[in-house]
Structures are given as structure tokens and as C-alpha cells.
Amino acid sequence: xxxxxxxxxxxxxxxxxxxxxxxxxxxxxxxxxxxxxxxxxxxxxxxxxxxxxxxxxxxxxxxxxxxxxxxxxxxxxxxxxxxxxxxxxxxxxxxxxxxxxxxxxxxxxxxxxxxxxxxxxxxxxxxxxxxxxxxxxxxxxxxxxxxxxxxxxxxxxxxxxxxxxxxxxxxxxxxxxxxxxxxxxxxxxxxxxxxxxxxxxxxxxxxxxxxxxxxxxxxxxxxxxxxxxxxxxxxxxxxxxxxxxxxxxxxxxxxxxxxxxxxxxxxx
Length: 268
Fold this sequence. Notes:
Layout: E1 4-6, H1 26-40, E2 42-49, H2 54-64, E3 68-72, H3 86-94, E4 99-108, H4 116-133, E5 137-142, H5 145-154, E6 160-162, H6 169-178, E7 180-184, H7 194-202, E8 208-210, H8 232-243, H9 247-262
Parallel strand pairs: 1-2, 2-3, 3-4, 4-5, 5-6, 6-7, 7-8
Helix pairs in contact: 3-4, 5-6, 7-8, 8-9
């Protein structure tokens, strides 16, 4: 069976998308999604925790599922929760043995859920923490390309991934020059994403990842419904089509790239 990695999935959020689901059924609902992923060939999943409240749930998933790795970061939407003691607090969380990255972190000027100055400070601090701990960054950026690149360059960041990429070709190529990977989500499958598919054709083979960003952004024929890690196969199929190669080759390359970037202690 072809092996896939979902390099970015909010597994802890999947039950939240099931209306009326009793708390007692949350584990079973997640179990079922993980089993569907296994049946589809998804061998490993990376689940970033993105708020302080999320980290206990995310850590618990690593006890429940040995094929789940985690990341630790504060999303720009929650940058106002970043305070004087947050660096040390996140450092302690990131010492968990299954934390393989810092993030997702970055800048989001589309929603401006937190003041931009707070977003930038939280972003800078998390870049520094990633450097200190020798971990890659998982970058979220929306409508903030210039500041994102400027801060990455000023802080000397050279390892990580622009997750769920929807930005410009210029941002992608600048990120690649810095040493970052580009991760494609279900957005690449949407009808109006011709420009993103054109970009996906040109990203170097050692710099692309695939992800669901579940429970968000489900690809067709599931669009509008809850996304889940099994659907990463749909992203691989689209990427294979635009690059003119086999799905098996996309899966193998994305798996190698993900294992290398996050230094996952696994064997294919």
C-alpha cells in the first residue's frame, strides 16, 4: 500500500465539527477517523497545538495513537495570550519527546484577531525558541507576506514549512531560498486555484509537503464537510496530476521530505 503522511492535521479538533456529539463519544469519533486514515495508507499524522488550552489534548493524542507526532506553538489569532512568561512556558511544553516543531505560528493580517505588534512579537519569540531547541517552524501567514519574510530574515530562520500555502509565487520562492518547504492542502484541489496549481508544478521535489489542515478545507467531493486525514490522498492525487507524475511518487517524495524536515524517528 502507498504510504502517506498528513503533515498538518488538527486531530484534536475533529470531534468539534460533529454537531451534538456527546463528550463521551469524542475518543470514539477520533478513533474512527484515525482508522479511516490508516485504511487509506496514512501512516503518520502531525498534529500542531495552536493555543495554550489545546496542548493537554494534543499531548493526550500521542498516548492514544503512537503514529501521531505533535508541534507546539501559539497561532497569530491568539497572539494576545503571549505574555512575558510565554517563552519559558512554551519551551517547557516543547520538551515533550513527541514535539517535532514549533508552530503553527506567524502573522495573519486578514482577520487581525490580535494586534499586529503582538503577532510580530509572538512570532519573533517562537522563531528564537525554535532556533534554541533546534526545531523547524510551522509558518502561518495570510495577507502579511512582506512582514513574514522580513521577520524570518531578521531572526535568521532557515528551517521549517509554510503550511497550507495560499500565498504568492514570490513568497514561495523566497521561502525556498531561505530553506523552507511549501505544504499544499485541499486548497490546491479547488476550481479557482489555478495559480496555486501552477506554483505546485514548480516547487523543487525536495521542498513540497502535503497536508489536510483538517478539520478545515476538505477537498472535493467532501468540500463543505469536515476534513480528515484520510483525505490527504486527494491532495496527493492533484499534486501528481499537475506535476505529471504518479501518485505513488508524490506520496513517497512527500513522505521523505516530511521525515527529513521534522526528523521523525520512523522508518518507511
